[in-house]
Each structure stands twice: as structure tokens, then as C-alpha cells.
Specification:
It holds the Pfam family Nup188_N. This is Nucleoporin Nup188 N-terminal domain-containing protein. One of its GO terms (cellular component) is nuclear pore inner ring. GO terms for molecular function: structural constituent of nuclear pore. The structure is a single chain. It contains 51 helices and nine strands. It has 1090 residues and is mainly alpha-helical. The strands form three sheets. Strands 4-9-8-5 form a four-stranded antiparallel sheet, with no helix packed on it. β2 and β3 form a beta hairpin. α20 runs antiparallel to α21, α24 runs parallel beside α27 and α44 packs across α48. The longest helix has 35 residues. It is globular and about 105 Å long. 39% of the residues are buried.
């Protein structure tokens, strides 16, 4: 064995993970530290040969490991036998040079990381190197405008000067054609696919940045390579689509295709061609990377794309048509132009008909690109492309053309949120934005005849502080409207006052002259009048008209524009009259509260309504900031009320829409702004005002967004969970209610799951046994005196589990909970589930039966809630059909039978008041705890004489009164019938409502079973009648429907003048039982109130 061996110095590399971390953490706006700049120069060769410096195994390296000491250039390693053996194993698995394998093993041991060897594999190091190069380009791009000779700029140029472009394209081609390594375990295929696609994206990011900042130029041959690769990807010739097997890989695959499309469009250099058109420079005298021969060869490639078969090719075909048209305008007449033979119009027609504009809009709307994009430069590429398209074909925004709408949508998406692009737009020297500015001028000339389009475009351009958008509207030079004409004159005069479009009562004065813009009918033209009121004034009048006419789109877009004008157009800072702003804020608050009150009776809110509310809140926030130091007290209280009502409503929406999340953040910001203003402090002397503020804050603002982060950082859930071990502890119900609050929020549910709540609740139920449940009874009439602890521990436990399943439904943790809990509740605790669903016997109406029956037992309101919790859990678990059907295969029939029997029991409560007697009380549910007795003292809030609202009072009086009231309530046929009607109370109404909630959940569960079975039948192609779920008899459903109709009709007739919130809730529940979804405004708009 030799003491010392030497190998090629190129086998050594420094830690790229450390280098990448340093680059990532360095500032983009300043030069690099000297030590980091030196590292970049030292590793230049690795960056250029990024993917070829890892060598395959060879005999000389293997023999070198047999020596005691190994020299690798200036580095020296002491060979350790046990590490050598591991290095040889890794070398054979990774097909990696033995010396380089030894370096990996030694570093993994040095950092004491069991998985370090995996993280240092060539694939991982490839990604680190590629990420380092991407950061070098990003630094160069950011820092280039500050210092042209900065280190990053120099290194980036040198990389591509030394041939990085060709090596990256070659590597990209290789990984597109790569297949899964045969020696690798099949279980790692998903990981391999993800790593392969990440490398695809990194390579394309680097190339995109290189072309975007002109570190290298793309000639005709290179463009054809990219085009051929793109065509092959779309045709499925490469592995890009085949590797998209998970959500993550699908996103990576989509991003790679879009990035390659953007590279192809960017490298056409449309910006340079537009510059030549603008400067009227002939093509042969201009600077272009493509020769005429290149263009012909590129056209031959593009002609093979079929946008109808591959929609992703549509934007490229359209961009190529635009490029060809612009070239044709640059070719001088005396030149022999082969381009004249190319039919660019057919390309345009194909791309438009194939939906290329729709695909561009999808790119802009896709969150995937926002997450992966390195500089949001893709908007600039699409901006140049769309601008060139508009310029080439003299595109105009015609309201009847769907493509015009798409163009407008694309432009709004491009500019909104991109301040640099908006600044360029308003720069008159920006020739790229010139065609789009012309579109805006055309829209402005037709204002207010076409308001929506100009409002949307101006709103998207509102970035930066200079009030350009406000000035454009405020200094409007005319008003446009439709006008009847009798000749071909281009100038007309109004002989009488002309109605301004969209503003009732506002007229253009008689005698005003106007210019015909275009003819829109046989005798009708659109005329631009020489009458110039403020466009902002007209827009506000138009807004008021739209709000009155309930024009949702117009109101939302106009409020959005006003909000963004107040937010961004602030450079002039003009003073405003506080009183007018307060009046405006008051009106906005009243409108907001009215909308929230309407939504509170509905089960959800449409996207239009949420967008409308978001605009109102944002406008309110900006107005609050405007009058921050002089905010009136009454306005402060009104704004606080808006915040409380809004937060209370939106925090209750399940699931929480993304728009509602935005509104809640705005409302919290609005709340903080008001609390920090001087208005509350200046008027703190008034006790009433103080009480109002304190009540609003304490009662309404503790939302999960506020308390969850605090609990996540400071609450030790396992310690709290230990208290569940003491089954005699009176704090168990309190803890479970707290856990229920946590479980209703995704983050809280994850806290409980990670802290082992499922194990704790199993232990709790196992130790408590039958103390916390109604085990031993045969129906809902089980004696409530069997509760050792009165609180419904079992029901609360079910509620917590249900909330966790609902919060984590789309999470792997949610799937684990479902699989675990279905098995637990429907195998180990199945008897408790069935007990919760047992229906009481409906009392007999047979007066001839003299033989005494067994005494009927009482139940409690907690028992009914326990049944509700059981059904809610069943509904949530049943949504996971595959897990559900496997776990309850042996009990599913019995479970449905129990549900149908209980539903039948509830359905029999259809007798009206005249049919009832004291001996027919079907349910004995007296108040049992303090809260029940308090509700029992309150009068009825429903006041219905039908259904269970008439049945429940007979059995809901306190126990001593039940005995004196009628012994028929405890035994059949043993006592005489009472003649005194049972009083209706708030408690009896609550019990009746609980019964109807149970009915609704029973129907929901049975519907879920049937829907899943029907879907299964569609999948397999036949209906398995032997296993198809049983359905309730029509008589049962008719009974429930009858109750709902009688009660709803009765309540509507009795509350014609004003409908309370409780009444609306009752009617909504009953309508849902009938399968009718509540409609906003149903009560106010119903004919029954007329």
C-alpha cells in the first residue's frame, strides 16, 4: 500500500451548499463581499462545467483510495478504511468517481448527518450549482444598473463567454430524454421525477435570465433548437409530461413549458423590431440576430406547429405572425423579399381560433408561475408581445368581440401590481407601450358610453404616487353618447339636451357640437361632445346610478379604481374637507353593514359580493388614514361596528374563501387604524362612548387570526392534554371545549394532531367507560340520571374529532385521522354510536289500552346535542368514501336503518296543535342544568304552533311539573289527560330546533351515502342493487316537508313587518331540510310580506 497518492485536482470541489446559502443571503442591491467574490472566481470552472465535472468510476481513483494519504491538488485527505468501504458502495450505486464518493462520505461524517450522503449526491449538487448560477444572474440583473462593472456582471458575462449556454442546452436535452435508472429502487421514482423537473426549471430560469439581460444572444440555429424541444415536449416525445405524476411535479412541468415558451417569445426580440419600426430603420440596416435565411428556416419549423392540437403552441404561433408582419414593414420595396410568400395572416387566424389569448391569460392567472418566477419578468415579455400584436393588426377594443375582452383582461393582469411597468406605460418615450396607450385613448374618447373597460384598465395602472390616472379622468375633454344622425356629417349639433349615458338626470346642453366617432346603427352614431365636465364627477354619478340599479360588476370595478386612486395617487396631497369625507364614510359604513346583515342569513357569499365588500373596506381604510388626526367619534364607532360585524361574519364562513381572508386582513388593519387615531382618546370622558368601544372590542375581535399565532408560540398542548387523564376532573369539559375551538382552525387542528390528541381521547373514553355516555339505554329516552358527570364528554370528544377532520380534510394528517377514527368509532365504540341513533317509541293514541306500560325515561338537551355530534362526525367521515366503505362494511346496513328509524320518528311530529294532548308528548326532555333552566324562564322566540315547536313544550317543563301536569307523560294510558296547555318557552324552542338539526344531518348523511353509491355505479358501469343504500319511505319525507312548509308559512305570515334573525335561521334550516337553498333577500322579497 502506497503512503501517498495523487489524483487530478479537478475532482475536488468546495461546499456548494455553503456557497449557495451565502449568495442567497447577500444583498441584491450592493456589491458582493470580497471573500464571496473570490469564491465565485475560484469556482468558475465548476459553474461552466456544472454538469460534467462529476466523473464516472475509474480504476485509478479506486487504486488511489488504497493509499494512506490522498492529494487532490492543494488538498490532502487521510484515508480511513471504514469510510473507504462506504465510498466504494456509494460509487457503485451513484456511478460516481471513487475519490469524489469518498469526499461525499467524509463530509457527511464530518457534519454528523445521517442523510448527508443523500443530500450530497450529484443530483443535489447539480441543483446547488444551478441555483448558484441563477443567483449570480439575478445579482447581475439587479446590480447592473448601479454599477456596470460589478463582480456579478463580470462573472455572468464570463460564464456565457466560456460556453455555458451550449452546455446548458445540451444538459437540458439530456435530462428531457433521461429515463429512470435501472439500479435505483422503484420506490424512489417520485423523488427522482421531482428532482429531474427541478433541474429542468433551473436550467430554463438561467437561460431566460441570460437572454432577458442580454448576457448572450439567441441566433437562428439556437432558436430552432428551442423550438424543436418545445414541439417535442408538446407532442409528448420527451419525459416532461410523463414525470408529472404528483401535484408538485405537475406544477414543475407546467412551469417548465411556460418558461420555454417565454424564452422562445423573448428571443424573437420583438422589442428591438418595434424600435426599428418606431425609428423607421430598414431591416437590412438595423441590428438583428436573424438573417433572412434564418427567418425562413424558423418559419419552416413554426409551420409544423398545430395550435388546434396543442393549445400551448398558440401564443408562439401568434408571436411568430407578429414578428413576420413587423419584418415585412421593415423590408424596403426594392429588396427581393422572400418573406412576402409567407402567409402570416393564416398564422394569426389559427392562433386566435385555437385560443392563444386565453392561454396567455391562464399564464398570468396561474399562481404556479408567481411562485417559481425569478423576477416577474414574464409580464414584461407578454407586455411586449401583446403591444406588438396590437400595433401590427391595428387592434381596437370592440365591446362585441370576445377577443377584445381577453386582450383587456391580459393587459389588466400584466400591469396590476407591477409599478415599473406602469411607470413605463405613462412614459411618452416608451415606444413599447405606445400601442396600448392608443387603446386607452380610444377608450377615453368613448367615456362614459364605455365605462367598464376604461375603469378596469386605469385601475390596473394605478401604481406609483403620481396622480396620472386621476388627472386623465378629471381633465376629460369631452363626453360621448349615442346620437341619432340623418346624414354622413362628421360634425353634429345637439338641438336639444342629450342624456349622458348611465347617469339619469344629467344632460349635455342643447347647442353643443360633437364629432362622430363611429356609426353603430343605421341612423345611430357614437358622438364625442365638446362638453367637458370632470370625468371623476361623471364617474361618481355613474357609480351612484349603478349601485341603485344593483350593477355588481360596474360597482366593484369603480370602487376598486377609487380605492387605488386614493392609495397610490398621493403625490399632490391636496387638502380635503373633513365633513364631506365623514359623510362619505358614513354612507360606505351603512352600505357595508346592510350587505353584511343580508349575508348573515345565507350559507355562503358569492365572489362578486366579496369583491364588492373588499373594495368598500379598502376605500374605507384609505379614507380613515386621510382623516386620521381628525376622525370624528361617531364615525370611529361606526367603523368599529363595521369591523366587528365583518370579522364575525367572515370568520364563520366554512370553508373560508380567499376573498374573505383578504377582507378580514383589511378589517383588522382598519380596526387598528381607528384605535390608534385621536378620536377615541379625545372623547374618553363620555362613559357611554367608552362602554360602546369596550363592548365592541371585547365581544367581537378575538378571531383565530389573532390568537392562533400566540398559542402556537407559547401554549404547550401536551401539558394541557395530561389533564384529560384525570377522569374525575371537572375541568375536562372546559379543556375539550377549548380543544374544539382549536380544532376548528387548520393550524389548531394540526397542533392537536401533532400533540397526540387522538391517543388522549381514546384513553379518556377507555377510562371513563360508560360514565360519559348513554351506554346501557336503548333509545334517546335513556335516563339522564345515569350520567356520572353531567357534562357531555362523549359528545364534546366527537365534536373535536369532527372539527379536526373538517379542518385537515385535504391534508395527509386528515387522511390519517379519518382512517384511524372510522375504525375506532365504528368497531371499538360502535355500540355508543348506535345508542346515539336509537329512536324513542312514539306514544300510542289507542285509548282502549288499559294495561300499564313501562315508565318512559327522560332525556336531556345534552343528549340531543350528543346525537347531533355523532351525525356530524358520520357526515364528515362519510365524505372519505373509500376509507368509509371499507371500515364499516359490517355495520353500514344497521347504521342506515337506525338513521331511517330516527328520521321516521321525527317525521311523525306533523300533528298540528289541535291534534295534541298531554298524553301524546313524544319526547320527555326537561331542563337539567342551570343553563337549561335559564332558557326555560324566557318566552318562546319562534312562536310556532306546528311541528315539533308544538310537540316539545309538553315534555320540556321541569320534572316536578311533569308529574303534576300529567302522568301520561311518564306512562301510557295511566293518567287522565290534562286540560292545561303546556307553555311554550325558549327552552322548548331550543329542543325543537335541535330535533330539526338532527333531521337535517340525518338527511345529509343518507344523501352522502346515496351520492357515493351512485358515483361508484357510474365508475363500474352497473348498479349493485344488493348493496345500494336504503332510502327513507316517501311518507317520511312528506312528513318532514309538511312540517317545514307549515312552520315556514306560519312564521312568514306572522312576521310580515320585520323578520328577526332567529326567525330567519329557523326558516333557513327548515328550507334546507326540504332541499331548498336559502336565497339572499328571500324574506324581504317574498310575496308573503306584501
Amino acid at each position: 500500500m502506497a503512503d501517498t497518492s495523487s489524483v487530478d485536482a479537478s475532482l475536488w470541489w468546495d461546499s456548494f451548499t455553503v456557497l449557495f446559502s451565502e449568495l442567497e443571503n447577500s444583498s441584491l442591491t450592493s456589491d458582493l463581499p470580497p471573500n464571496l467574490a473570490k469564491k465565485l472566481k475560484d469556482n468558475h470552472a465548476w459553474f461552466v462545467d456544472t454538469l460534467t465535472r462529476f466523473k464516472p468510476p475509474n480504476q485509478s481513483s479506486k487504486e488511489a483510495l488504497s493509499s494512506k494519504t490522498l492529494k487532490i491538488g492543494s488538498h490532502q485527505l487521510t484515508i480511513q478504511p471504514h469510510l473507504k468501504d462506504k465510498a466504494l458502495q456509494i460509487s457503485s450505486c451513484l456511478l460516481l468517481d471513487e475519490v469524489q464518493s469518498y469526499i461525499i462520505v467524509e463530509r457527511s461524517v464530518k457534519y454528523n448527518n445521517a442523510v448527508a450522503a443523500d443530500s450530497m449526491a450529484p443530483e443535489f449538487l447539480h441543483m446547488c450549482l444551478l441555483k448558484c448560477i441563477r443567483w449570480i444572474l439575478m445579482h447581475a440583473l439587479h446590480n447592473g444598473s448601479v454599477s456596470e462593472d460589478n463582480t456579478m456582471k463580470e462573472e455572468a458575462r464570463k460564464l456565457f463567454h466560456d460556453g455555458l449556454e451550449n452546455k446548458l442546452i445540451l444538459f437540458f436535452n439530456n435530462i428531457l430524454s433521461s429515463s429512470y435508472p435501472e439500479q435505483m429502487d422503484a420506490d424512489f421514482f417520485t423523488l427522482w421525477a421531482e428532482e429531474t423537473l427541478i433541474e429542468d426549471n433551473l436550467v430554463l430560469d438561467i437561460l431566460y435570465l441570460a437572454y432577458y439581460d442580454s448576457f448572450c444572444t439567441c441566433g437562428g440555429e439556437m432558436w430552432k433548437k428551442f423550438g424543436s424541444l418545445y414541439e417535442g415536449i408538446l407532442a409528448g416525445d420527451y419525459n416532461l409530461g410523463k414525470l408529472a405524476i404528483t401535484t408538485e411535479t405537475q406544477q414543475l412541468s407546467y412551469h417548465a413549458k411556460v418558461q420555454l415558451l417565454l424564452i422562445l417569445i423573448e428571443t424573437l426580440n420583438l422589442e428591438n423590431v418595434l424600435q426599428m419600426v418606431h425609428d423607421e430603420v430598414p431591416y437590412r440596416k438595423g441590428v438583428s440576430t436573424f438573417s433572412m435565411t434564418d427567418v425562413q428556416d424558423m418559419d419552416a419549423l413554426v409551420s409544423t406547429f398545430n395550435a388546434f392540437e396543442m393549445k400551448e403552441a398558440g401564443p408562439l404561433v401568434l408571436a411568430w405572425a407578429v414578428f413576420l408582419y413587423l419584418l415585412l414593414t421593415l423590408v424596403e420595396k426594392d429588396e427581393n423579399n422572400e418573406l412576402m410568400e409567407i402567409d402570416h395572416i393564416s398564422y394569426v387566424r389559427q392562433a386566435i381560433e385555437a385560443g392563444s389569448l386565453r392561454y396567455c391569460l391562464e399564464i398570468l392567472e396561474c399562481d404556479i408561475l408567481k411562485d417559481y418566477d425569478v423576477l416577474s419578468g414574464y409580464r414584461g415579455v407578454l407586455r411586449t408581445f401583446i403591444s406588438a400584436f396590437v400595433a401590427s393588426y391595428e387592434f381596437k377594443l370592440q365591446p362585441e368581440d370576445s377577443n377584445c375582452t381577453l386582450i383587456l383582461d391580459i393587459l389588466c393582469k400584466i400591469y396590476r401590481g407591477e409599478e415599473s411597468l406602469c411607470i413605463q406605460f405613462w412614459d411618452k418615450e416608451s415606444f413599447i407601450d405606445g400601442p396600448i396607450r392608443s387603446l386607452l385613448c380610444n377608450l377615453e374618447s368613448e367615456f362614459p358610453f364605455r365605462t367598464l373597460e376604461i375603469v378596469r384598465l386605469l385601475s390596473s395602472l394605478c401604481e406609483g404616487t403620481w396622480p396620472t390616472e386621476y388627472n386623465l379622468l378629471n381633465r376629460s375633454v369631452g363626453i360621448s353618447s349615442l346620437f341619432e344622425i340623418n346624414s354622413d356629417l362628421e360634425v353634429v349639433e345637439a338641438l336639444q339636451a342629450v342624456q349622458v349615458p348611465g347617469v339619469e338626470g344629467f344632460f349635455i346642453p342643447a347647442g353643443t357640437r360633437g364629432r362622430v366617432l363611429r356609426v353603430v346603427g343605421e341612423n345611430t352614431a357614437l358622438v364625442r361632445w365638446e362638453y367637458s365636465p370632470s370625468g371623476m364627477f361623471v364617474l361618481l354619478l355613474h357609480l351612484a346610478q349603478e349601485m341603485y340599479l344593483n350593477s355588481k360588476d360596474g360597482v366593484v370595478y369603480t370602487l376598486d379604481l377609487l380605492s387605488r386612486l386614493v392609495t397610490f395617487n398621493t403625490s399632490q396631497g391636496r387638502a380635503t374637507t373633513g365633513g364631506r369625507i365623514f359623510t362619505f364614510m358614513d354612507n360606505i359604513c351603512q352600505s357595508f353593514l346592510a350587505t353584511v346583515e343580508t349575508l348573515s342569513s345565507a350559507l355562503d357569499a358569492s365572489e362578486d359580493i366579496l369583491n364588492f365588500l373588499a373594495c368598500q373596506v379598502e376605500l374605507l381604510l384609505q379614507l380613515t388614514r386621510t382623516v386620521f388626526k381628525s376622525l370624528a367619534l361617531h364615525v370611529s364607532l361606526l367603523v368599529l361596528k363595521c369591523s366587528s360585524s365583518g370579522l364575525k361574519l367572515f370568520s364563520a364562513l366554512k370553508p373560508l374563501p380567499s376573498e374573505a381572508n383578504v377582507i378580514m386582513k383589511l378589517l383588522l388593519t382598519l380596526l387598528l387604524s381607528v384605535l390608534q387615531s385621536d378620536s377615541l382618546n379625545a372623547h374618553s370622558g363620555g362613559a357611554t362612548n367608552e362602554s360602546s368601544v369596550m363592548d365592541l372590542i371585547l365581544r367581537c375581535f378575538l378571531t383565530p387570526r389573532t390568537w392562533l399565532p400566540v398559542l402556537q408560540n407559547h401554549l404547550q398542548v401536551p401539558i394541557v392534554m395530561l389533564k384529560l387523564d384525570d377522569k374525575n376532573s371537572a375541568s375536562i369539559p372546559i379543556i375539550l371545549k377549548f380543544f374544539l375551538t382549536l380544532a376548528r382552525v387548520r393550524g389548531g387542528a394540526e397542533m392537536l394532531y401533532c400533540s397526540g390528541f387522538l391517543s388522549s381521547v381514546r384513553a379518556l373514553f377507555a377510562e371513563s367507560g360508560e360514565d360519559f355516555s348513554r351506554i346501557g339505554s336503548e333509545n334517546l329516552g335513556s335516563s339522564c340520571e345515569k350520567f356520572v358527570i353531567p357534562q357531555d364528554i362523549w359528545g364534546l370528544g366527537l365534536a373535536v374529532v369532527t372539527a379536526m377532520v373538517k379542518s385537515l380534510r385535504d391534508n395527509s394528517s386528515g387522511t390519517a385521522i379519518v382512517d384511524s377514527m372510522i375504525q375506532y368509532f365504528f368497531s371499538e365504540k360502535a355500540h355508543l354510536i348506535f345508542n346515539s341513533l336509537n329512536a324513542p317509541d312514539f306514544p300510542s293514541d289507542d285509548h282502549d289500552k288499559k294495561r300499564p306500560q313501562a315508565q318512559r325515561a327522560w332525556i336531556s338537551l345534552a343528549t340531543l346535542k350528543e346525537t347531533e355530534h355523532t351525525l356530524m362526525l358520520m357526515c364528515e367521515l362519510a365524505k372519505h368514501w373509500n376509507s368509509w366503505i371499507k371500515a364499516i362494511r359490517n355495520v353500514d346496513r344497521k347504521l342506515r336503518e337506525k338513521c331511517i328509524h330516527l328520521l321516521a320518528f321525527i317525521s311523525r311530529g306533523s300533528q298540528r296543535l289541535g291534534e295534541l294532548s298531554s298524553r301524546n308528548a313524544p319526547l320527555l326532555c326537561p331542563p337539567t342544568v342551570k343553563e337549561d333552566f335559564e332558557i326555560c324562564l324566557k318566552p318562546s322566540y319562534v312562536n310556532s304552533r306546528n311541528g315539533w315547536f308544538a310537540l316539545s313544550p309538553l315534555g320540556c317543563v321541569p320534572k316536578p311539573k311533569i308529574s303534576s301536569f300529567s302522568t301520561a307523560l311518564s306512562t301510557y294510558g295511566q293518567a287522565t289527560e290534562s286540560t292545561d296547555p303546556a307553555p311554550k318557552t325558549g327552552f322548548s324552542d331550543t329542543v325543537a330546533l335541535q330535533v330539526y338539526r338532527i333531521a337535517f344531518l340525518l338527511l345529509k348523511f343518507l344523501c352522502l351515502q346515496t351520492e357515493c353509491a351512485a358515483k361508484r355505479a357510474e365508475e363500474v358501469g352497473f348498479v349493485d342493487l344488493a348493496h345500494f343504500p336504503e332510502l327513507p319511505m316517501p311518507e317520511i319525507l312528506h312528513g318532514l316537508q309538511g312540517q317545514a312548509i307549515f312552520i315556514t308559512t306560519e312564521l312568514c305570515e306572522a312576521n310580515k313587518l320585520k323578520v328577526s334573525q332567529e326567525t330567519q335561521d329557523v326558516c333557513n334550516l327548515l328550507l334546507q331540510i326540504c332541499g331548498i337553498r336559502p336565497v339572499r333577500g328571500f324574506f324581504k322579497g317574498s310575496q308573503i310580506f306584501i
